[in-house]
């Protein structure tokens, strides 16, 4: 069991973001110090309401502060994904408004403040567009040395995109923010869409077993992911995708990552056809080519393979409330 993991979770709360938050809120020994919300799947105000609703569903209402962040990308028009998760981001569940309210401090300011108050102690799990983190970095560049680790769900390593042929949604929505974060010097672990599809797609009998768990948490999980499941099945993915929750699971149990490589990662901002593409340089010796410009090439640790079996058991533990296997 991971003890004393302290997190800031940056999220565009919809669908699997909710599963990730539930995992962080319910896992023994994990403490979410703050949830920061950013536009992405849906407008930021809805992301904030969904985060508060999820905290309350986990029985933690009023105990975990939620800070609302950026309502648009740095340079681009607002882009959303209600077509995947429903207009409310929660599978068209239309839950009643949360009882609690967000804090008044802006998410980017909260990130800067918390990292300065607890240098070297907090990790960030980021599973939305990276706008809040980019703004926080611009407010105080010293935070790159004060955060313990940044787990980024975003991009795709030598694999297709999920919004265009080449781009994963989070990086596509705000490619400039992603580029700023990856070039800043943060201690990043990147978990791409490739990992989600290969190692975190739960369908068939596995999904039936999850759906058979009859707890309030499991019923909430089914409800918020039902639209995404239907969307996936209509688009050739037979199951629920868990990009955000496998990122959270990896922060909780890093041994979930079976293979990784330190790589130079750049995010495409100029091309329209390849906007948001994550160029992951996995070559052993890129300096041998004429295009090599020198300098530091390891901007991120990139996950190449994750343990689906362990992830599925972690998901089962969260939905059932039985963590004995991991004690």
From TrEMBL:
Q: What GO CC annotations are associated with the protein? A: cytosol
Q: Which residues cross the membrane?
A: none
The Inosine/uridine-preferring nucleoside hydrolase domain extends over 7-312
Q: Which Pfam families match?
A: IU_nuc_hydro (PF01156)
Q: Is Cell inner membrane given among the entry's keywords? A: no
Q: What is its EC number?
A: 3.2.2.1
Any idea which GO molecular function terms this record carries? Answer: purine nucleosidase activity
**InterPro entries found in the cross-reference section:** Inosine/uridine_hydrolase_dom (IPR001910), IUNH (IPR023186), Ribo_hydro-like (IPR036452)
Keywords noted in UniProt: Glycosidase, Hydrolase
GO biological process: one example: purine nucleoside catabolic process
Protein's UniProt name: Inosine-uridine preferring nucleoside hydrolase
Q: Which organism is it from?
A: Paenibacillus pasadenensis
